[in-house]
Amino acid sequence: MLKRTVTINLYRSCRGVTNKIGHLVLLRQVWSAVSLSREASGRLLVDPAPGQEAAAVQDADSGVMRLRAGDPFTGETVVLWLGVHSLAFTLVCEPHENLLLAEGTLRNLSQHCLESLHMLGPGSEVLLKSSRIDVLLSRLLPHGQLLFLNHRFTQSLEKDVASFLLK
Amino acid sequence: MYSHGSESLINQAREIQEPELQKFYSRLVKLLQVKELSHETLDSLQRLQLILFANKFTKILPAELQQKLLSLLSSPAEQLQVLGSAVLRETLPPSGQELNFSEENLSQLNTHAAALLLSQARSRADLSNLCAQLIRSLESRPSEGPTQSLMFTLPVLNTVFTLSPECLTEDHVTLLSKKLVDWLRYASIVQGGGASSGGFFAGPRSRQPLPIAELDGSVSGDFFTVLCVGQGFTEDQWMNVYAFSMLRHWLLTHHSVSNTAVDAGKAPQRHGPSIWKSSKDTGLDSDFSRAQKKADSELQKACLVEAVCILDCVCAEDASMVYRAFPCMKALFGRLSSDLSFARVLLPIAQFYLNHGEMDTVDCERVWKLVFGQFPAELFNDAFLAYELLRFLRLNLENIQSRAPEFVQFFPNFLKFLAWDSPAVVEDFVDLLPSLVTTGTAVELLHTLLDLPCLAATLVLQLRSTCLPIADPNSRGLLSLEAFRNPAFRGLFLFLLRAQAGSGDTIDRLSTLHELLAEAADWPRVVRCAQTVPVLLHVYFNTVVKVKTCRSMTYWLRLLAFTARLLFSRWTTESSWVFSCHLRRLCKLHPSLVVDQSHELLEFAGATANVYNKEEVYTHVVWVLGEYLSVSSDSRCSVKLITSCFEALEAVLFEITSSTPPPGTICPAPRVITTLMSALAKLASRSHDLIPRASLFLSKLRTVSRNGSVAWCADEEDLVAIVTRGEELWSLLKAPGVAQSVLTPPAYVTTPRWHRDTSVAMPLQLRALTSLTHSQ
């Protein structure tokens, strides 16, 4: 069962201007959406091991949620979520954005977060290595811009990120 | 995984004391004075960010530290830029220390510094300034600075005009439009750096630039598009990707700019044809079957969606484009419509048909059939499609109502999304449901809403029966699944799964269906669905009152008797509350309905069993009868009708107050008893012949309960309350004139104008009445 949701602050520049309370509201909504979906699907979760990030993302359940204006963002927003075991990744989008692209971007980002922060293993790297997330976002979702990246472009960015992470 | 270690780290960060924090700040300042980048510096910066993030209130850092952090933004090490920007975004800038980039140091503006600038921009002037500088940097091509400085420019600009489209001047819009067209149309079609893999021994020949390829490996045509691949990419190819990614938002925002004083809207229109050509090439002409990677095939779908949406935007701006775009769209629809895996691409195409496809009625028919018919029926369990389809309906409601009014008939289909995943789409249905209530659909819609939990269970069975082979051990033991597969019950399930309305409001064998599905009552999906039913009933009744169709009104009054048909008894409380609440509102609006429907209502109110198992609705029906069965509500109300109603209610009241409750039930609620007594008194006050009978009953009640305990009321306090009410009513009936004016007040009393008519005001009457009863 879902123990805790980690909402990775997928920094979408100033578009989703929100305060920390707003973040909590969002976190709660996502948490309940993921729990309900898990309960309904009745799937059993197997604890994943480090190194199985790609498979974990493939198996992850996902969904979409509509947040009305003012709850908690000023305009209406769409929230995509991806539940990977006891973690949930969310991406807040504007209603006009391309959700197919957003879905792919969220999967890609989630997999990179899991890998580069070793989130499937024990430890608390996610808190003290958050700059890695910033770097990932600056390449794959720069200033919140969803990008149409084919596998060659993605590889090229990944190389760039990898060289940063090696330092 | 998120561990206890993380939790204690967060707690430490939250509980850090001020002196300790100050010490930490000064240590960090010292660390930052050292030129080289140490592990300790990075770690401390990370900790500082965590402290700032974990605390509720935004902190202001010491000026010296702030200054040092600002200087990190132009550090050559990206790690320091990232951390500097991340920390500063969590703080408030002290006045006078804003980040500033002018012509001279613009080359130092990197993506991380820009993120900080955006998060701390305080005025439109700040943003305009940033915009002007960024656009100037775009102009000074070829770029002198590092490649990256140009790459982040478009996303930053896109963010700026999301926040405030007015930041761009007319010249900016024109210039940027031109630039976008350049990147989209004229990006180089040879591979970028790293293309020659010949290495040391390679001759000059192999260093010839290679042409870029399509995803399937074939050499691509005249255009570079986001679906082109190569060993490496040139800067303008990267900009092509960025430009295509922001193009639609640019068109949408430009549209709103043109409505303002800045009449800058012409530029993209002039370039319309080439934008159209670019987007056409990006998506529409690619071959889907040969895509190498799954991610790329997803990307192709996303590109198709984008290209169709962009064409839609362009056609909305320039109607002359429609005749060029339409054949292309028609061909695409023809190619994709048979493949449900392209459903999410077909939705934007449907949008295009809705906006620009008036002339092609034959194709439109096919589009609507697909979107309203096949998609919900076969893809009800796709959360994303559900969201997008319901959004399509929501946003285009007026247009759909006029272009495809038959969509209303598909409500049983749309409700499948709700039955399958109620929490995710209930908001959409709160918005959509009112438009589905029409004179023709009202009755069937009500039935369908009440049967929604059954539909949820049936959808689960439908999926299971296709997933699990009949011999599968998991499917054995599920009685409902066997029933679902049993041809004898096929008709029942097919009725629930119908795509369109009109094959009858409901079915006769509902109770059979309920028995078959009994084990589904606690399936999570069914429980969630049942929880949303009352919410939707509420929306439904609010709408149906406005739709002036008496047939449905009288019909659903009759339905009251069937509230028990709700499959899952534990949720009936909420639903019957909604029923009762709307019954009251409806009768208040149309009091003559009570006379119209008196036969059904009396039948319901005269059945003693309803007191025990439909208490909520029963109480309200009795109240409605007492309140509105009078000549003042409807002139057709005869003495005979009042008398027969009095007799029916009297019989029930007599029965429940003279015997113990039937086995298996608890005592009737005191509220039912007092409501019955009040209704009797009200009816008696309208037909004075009945007063002695009412008085006799009320006085008997007092005598019976004098002993202090009765079989029909377990609580002593309740009994006292009941008896007191009885005595009050009894006293009131002793003065029939007063009783009538209090129990059946004329209309003007219930619409208070007390400040104007002091002499006939209700408070005055009550005071007079109090003194009367006290003196006796």
UniProtKB/TrEMBL annotation, chain A:
GO terms of biological process kind: double-strand break repair via homologous recombination; endosomal transport
Highest taxon listed in the record's lineage: Eukaryota
Entry GO terms, CC: AP-type membrane coat adaptor complex; cytosol; late endosome; lysosome
Matching InterPro entries: AP-5_subunit_s1
Coiled-coil region(s): none
Protein name from the UniProt record: Adaptor related protein complex 5 subunit sigma 1
Taxonomic lineage of the native organism: Eukaryota, Metazoa, Chordata, Craniata, Vertebrata
TrEMBL record, chain B:
AP-5 complex subunit zeta-1 C-terminal TPR domain sequence ranges: 428-772
Gene Ontology annotations for the cellular component aspect, listed alphabetically: AP-5 adaptor complex
Annotated Pfam families: SPG48, TPR_AP5Z1, TPR_AP5Z1_C
Every AP-5 complex subunit zeta-1 N-terminal TPR domain range: 1-265
Record InterPro entries: AP5Z1 (IPR028222), AP5Z1_ARM (IPR055450), TPR_AP5Z1_C (IPR056856), TPR_AP5Z1_N (IPR056857)
Annotated AP-5 complex subunit zeta-1 ARM repeats domain residues: 299-416
Protein name: Adaptor related protein complex 5 subunit zeta 1
